[in-house]
Design goal:
Blueprint lengths: L2 H7 L5 E6 L5 H13 L3 E6 L9 H8 L16 H8 L2 E7 L1 H9 L5 H8 L4 E5 L3 H5 L1 H12 L3 E3 L2 E4 L5 E5 L3 H12 L10 E6 L4 E4 L2 E3 L6 H12 L3 E6 L11 E4 L3 H12 L4 E4 L6 E3 L19 E3 L3 H8 L4 E8 L3 H12 L3 E6 L11 E2 L1 E4 L4 E3 L3 E2 H16 L5
Parallel strand pairs: 1-2, 1-3, 3-4, 4-5, 8-11, 8-13, 11-12, 13-16, 16-17
Antiparallel strand pairs: 6-7, 9-10, 14-15, 17-19, 18-21, 19-20
Helix pairs in contact: 2-3, 2-9, 4-6, 5-8, 10-14
Function: Catalyzes two sequential steps in the biosynthesis of coenzyme A. In the first step cysteine is conjugated to 4'-phosphopantothenate to form 4-phosphopantothenoylcysteine. In the second step the latter compound is decarboxylated to form 4'-phosphopantotheine.
Catalytic activity: N-[(R)-4-phosphopantothenoyl]-L-cysteine + H(+) = (R)-4'-phosphopantetheine + CO2; (R)-4'-phosphopantothenate + L-cysteine + CTP = N-[(R)-4-phosphopantothenoyl]-L-cysteine + CMP + diphosphate + H(+)
Keywords: Decarboxylase, Flavoprotein, FMN, Ligase, Lyase, Magnesium, Metal-binding, Multifunctional enzyme
Length: 410
C-alpha cells in the first residue's frame, strides 16, 4: 500500500475552532491549543482585538499552522471567514470567555469575526468562563449562563481563587487539563442508547392561582428537567417536555408543552405518557391548590386574606406508576432531612421504578444550583453519586432509564 493510499484511509483529525477573547487568562488559551493538538486535533483560532492586546496573532499562527481569523474582510483562507470556520469546525471552544462575549452569545450579537463565527456555528460549543468575581456573580451574567446552558452550550465553570485583580472568589479560569478533557468529551460522538425511545419529562414548578395576580409556587427553576430532556434528545430519544413556568429556552429537538397549574401538568403528562416508553417526573408540582381561586384581584382592605382553603392536587407520579404496565416511571424526592428514608417511603408509596433523591438543604444541590448531589433509590438498593454538574447528573439519570427501558435492569 502506498503512503498516499494510507493517508487517504486515515480518519480525519477532529477540527476545533479556538475562540479567544480579551481576558488576562488568554495566555492559557495557548496551552489549551497545545493540549488539543497533542490529542490529535486540528486547531484554528479566531481572536478579538482585545485578546490580541495580551497575546499576539503570531503565537497562535505559528503553533496552529493556520492564519488567525480576526478580521471579517482579511482572512487568506476564505472571503467569508465566519462561515468558513463555522462549517469547518467539529467543536468551538471559547477560552477565556469574558462576561462580554457571554452576553453577546446570549443575545445573538455579532459585531466582529469571533462573535459572528459563534452566531454561525452549528456544531457543539464549549465555554470556559473567566472574569472578575463580581462580574461573574452579576445577575446579568448568571442569567446569560442559564440561557446559554439551556440552549445546549457546554460550560467549564470558573474556579474559586486569587484573581489577577487581587480579588478572591469565583472567576478564575479552570485548569487547562480540565478544559482539554471537556473538549475531548464534547468531540466524542453521543451514544445512541436511547434511539427511538419515547420519553416524557416534566420540569419546573407549577403556579396555583389564588386570584389573577397571586399564586402558590415553589423555588424550582426547571434546570434539572431541561438538562434531562436535552441529554435524552442528544442520545436519540423522542422527548416531550411538559414544563411549568420557567425562564429557560427550549432544548433543541425537544417538543415542549408549556403548562401553568398542577391540573394542566397532569393532563399534559398523562396524554404524552399514553404513547411513551418512560416518564421522568422532575417537576416540583405543588401539592395543594386553592379550592376557590378568585376571578378578580383580592384587596387587603375589603377581602379576607387571613385564611385560604386548599385542596390536594392530582398525584401525577402515582397515577403514571399505577398505569405504567411494563413502562418505566422515575420520580424525584427533594428533601431537607432524612433523605434516603423519605425517598424509600416515597418509592413504595408511589409505586414507581426509581426515585432520584437530592437534599435541597445543601447549597450544591438546591433549587437553581448548577450542580446536584443525587442518590438513586430502588426497592432493593441505593446508589449515592458525588456532587456533579447538572449535565453529568442528567447523563447518569438517562443511563439508568435507558437500561431499564431496554429491560436490562437499572
Amino acid at each position: 500500500m502506498s503512503d498516499s493510499t494510507h493517508r487517504d484511509t486515515e480518519p480525519a483529525a477532529p477540527r476545533v475552532v479556538l475562540a479567544v477573547t480579551g481576558g488576562i487568562a488568554v495566555y492559557k488559551a495557548v496551552e489549551v491549543m497545545r493540549g488539543l493538538q497533542h490529542a490529535g486535533c486540528d486547531v484554528r483560532v479566531t481572536m478579538t482585538a482585545d485578546a490580541e492586546r495580551f497575546v499576539g496573532t503570531p503565537t497562535f499562527e505559528a503553533l496552529s499552522g493556520h492564519p488567525v481569523a480576526d478580521d471579517l474582510y482579511a482572512y487568506p483562507d476564505s472571503p467569508i471567514p465566519h462561515i468558513f470556520l463555522a462549517d469547518w469546525a467539529d467543536l468551538v471552544v471559547v477560552v477565556p470567555a469574558t462576561g462580554n462575549v457571554l452576553a453577546k452569545m446570549a443575545m445573538g450579537i455579532a459585531d466582529d469575526c469571533l462573535s459572528t463565527t459563534l452566531l454561525a456555528t452549528h456544531c457543539p460549543v464549549l465555554v470556559a468562563a473567566a472574569m472578575n468575581v463580581h462580574m461573574w456573580r452579576n445577575p446579568a451574567t448568571q442569567a446569560n449562563v442559564v440561557t446559554l446552558r439551556s440552549r445546549g452550550i457546554r460550560f467549564v465553570m470558573p474556579q474559586t481563587g486569587l484573581l489577577a485583580c487581587g480579588d478572591v472568589g469565583e472567576g478564575k479560569l479552570a485548569e487547562v487539563s480540565d478544559i482539554v478533557t471537556a473538549a475531548l468529551d464534547a468531540l466524542a460522538p453521543a451514544k445512541q442508547d436511547m434511539a427511538g425511545m419515547r420519553l416524557v419529562v416534566t420540569a419546573g414548578p407549577t403556579h396555583e392561582a389564588i386570584d389573577p395576580v397571586r399564586y402558590i409556587a415553589n423555588a424550582s427553576t426547571g434546570k434539572m428537567g431541561y438538562a434531562i430532556a436535552r441529554e435524552a434528545s442528544r442520545r436519540g430519544a423522542v422527548v416531550t417536555l411538559v414544563s411549568g413556568p420557567v425562564s429557560l429556552a427550549a432544548p433543541r429537538g425537544v417538543c415542549v408543552v408549556p403548562v401553568v397549574s398542577a391540573a394542566q401538568m397532569r393532563d399534559a403528562t398523562v396524554a404524552a405518557f399514553a404513547n411513551a416508553d418512560a416518564a421522568i417526573c422532575a417537576a416540583a408540582v405543588a401539592d395543594y391548590t386553592p379550592a376557590s381561586p378568585a376571578d378578580r384581584k383580592l384587596k387587603k382592605g375589603t377581602d379576607d386574606l387571613s385564611t385560604l382553603r386548599l385542596i390536594k392536587t392530582a398525584d401525577i407520579l402515582a397515577e403514571l406508576s399505577h398505569t405504567k404496565g411494563d413502562r418505566v416511571v422515575v420520580g424525584f424526592a427533594a428533601e431537607t432531612n432524612d433523605l434516603l428514608k423519605n425517598a424509600h417511603e416515597k418509592l413504595e408509596r408511589k409505586g414507581c421504578d426509581l426515585i432520584v433523591a437530592n437534599d435541597v438543604s445543601r447549597a450544591d444541590s438546591t433549587f437553581g444550583a448548577d450542580t446536584s448531589r443525587i442518590a438513586f433509590v430502588w426497592p432493593d438498593r441505593t446508589e449515592q453519586l458525588d456532587t456533579l454538574p447538572l449535565d453529568q447528573v442528567a447523563a447518569a439519570i438517562c443511563d439508568r432509564v435507558a437500561t431499564a427501558v431496554a429491560g436490562e435492569g437499572a
